[in-house]
Write a structure and sequence with these properties.
By secondary structure, this protein is α+β, with helices and mostly antiparallel strands. Helix content is 41%, strand content 25%. It has 3 domains: 128 residues, PAS domain (Beta-Lactamase), CATH 3.30.450; 76 residues, Helix Hairpins, CATH 1.10.287; 163 residues, 2-Layer Sandwich (Heat Shock Protein 90), CATH 3.30.565.10. The strands form 4 sheets. Strands 4-3-7-6-5 form a 5-stranded antiparallel beta sheet, sandwiched between helices. A 5-stranded mixed beta sheet has the order 9-11-12-14-13.
């Protein structure tokens, strides 16, 4: 117990001495903190540090060597910041992954504890768990690498096709020039789709994915998207299994088109060109149930749960040399959930996949169905 602190209240402007329990203050800190002697022995520790190292409590750490408790070592680190702190009174800081603590990443800051004459009498160790930050850094680097690769491929095709079309225009048959331009346009569409998914995901993660819902004729929206895919893939069969009496939904048209596009795009990527892709929909209570079915390579049970997470792809994606960064399905999930719906997949290896999602019907449609 140490007497210190000053408290002022509205009714009493005079300083009021209070008794401060520094151990409670110590234990209230989120970071692990220890006062350590110059020979590396822990003199005092807080609850956060005890939790970090799975000790019963702070008292269990007192008297033990800090490198033993935190690093699981029998001797001090080669570059121990305590040595720097002891010799020149400077703060030291390191980041280190601790196999001893389930590979937790810790940031260790060491500050000198000075005596009455300015001499270093001990050090204050502050430990912060930075595992999440390290994981985010890793994901960021992985994302940059993936996106750089995925952007480079279509850009290479676009530049190559257009340069050839321009430089060889007088010598190449008109139909061949046309195919070069079509190739460039297809890759430009891929770039646009990728950028759109990245923007939607960024907005969703920042909770800035705003919707502009309106009563929407789903049949018209779905048929329009199917028509686009038929034009892009004229040799593929696309089946639109849509009853003429489909009820209206309340949805953001552009976002709903994004969901349909991503699901159709995946179906094209992961199924043979000789197989059909089916889009179907039906009213189900107060919702519209929509599905996209393919007859492709399918997905293993172990991969199903992670598909709707950022940067995750099925292990067998490499079988069909399908490019992608693992953003399309997570965008689908964010958009569908923002509408108040659900999305899921049914699949098995070699048996194709069926992605289903729900969108609430428009209020007028729900009321009329309830009264019918």
């Amino acid at each position: 117990m140490v007497k210190a602190a000053i408290r002022r209240s509205e009714g009493n402007p005079q300083p009021v001495p209070i008794q401060v329990d520094w151990q409670r203050l110590f234990d209230s800190m989120g970071d692990g903190v220890a006062i350590v002697s110059l020979d590396h022995r822990i003199l005092r520790a807080n609850q956060a540090l005890a939790r970090m190292v799975s000790a019963g409590g702070p008292d269990d750490l007192v008297g033990r060597k800090c490198y033993e408790v935190v690093h699981g070592l029998r001797s001090e680190l080669e570059s121990c910041p305590l040595d720097c702190c002891r010799s020149d009174k400077k703060t030291g800081e390191i980041e280190r992954q601790e196999p001893h603590l389930n590979n937790t990443w810790l940031s260790l800051r060491v500050d000198p504890l000075l005596g009455t004459h300015g001499e270093v009498t001990g050090v204050i160790h502050t430990f912060r768990d930075i595992t999440l930050r390290k994981e985010m850094d890793r994901l960021k680097e992985e994302f940059i690498g993936l996106v750089s690769h995925e952007l480079r491929n279509p850009l290479t095709v676009i530049i190559g096709a257009l340069q050839t079309a321009l430089s060889e225009e007088d010598r190449l048959p008109r139909e061949e020039v046309r195919h070069l331009i079509i190739d460039a346009a297809e890759e430009a569409h891929s770039l646009s789709d990728m950028v759109g998914n990245m923007l939607d995901l960024a907005r969703a993660e920042a909770r800035r994915l705003t919707l502009a819902p309106e009563p929407l004729d789903f049949e018209t929206t779905a048929l329009g998207m199917v028509a686009k895919f038929r034009a892009r893939h004229p040799t593929r069969e696309f089946i639109a299994d849509l009853p003429a009496s489909l009820p209206a939904v309340r949805a953001d048209r552009l976002r709903l088109e994004r969901v349909l596009h991503n699901l159709l795009h995946n179906a094209v990527k992961y199924s043979p060109g000789s197989t059909a892709i089916r889009v179907f929909a039906r009213a189900d209570g107060g919702e519209l149930l929509v599905g996209v079915e393919d007859h492709g390579i399918g997905i293993s049970p172990g991969d199903l749960a992670k598909l709707f997470e950022p940067f995750q792809r099925a292990e067998n994606a490499s079988q069909v040399d399908a490019e992608g960064v693992g953003l399309g399905l997570v965008v689908c999930r964010r958009v569908v959930e923002a509408h108040g719906g659900r999305i899921w997949v049914e699949s098995a290896p070699g048996r194709g996949s069926t992605f289903r999602f729900t969108i609430p019907l428009s209020e007028g449609t729900r009321n009329s169905r309830a009264n019918s």
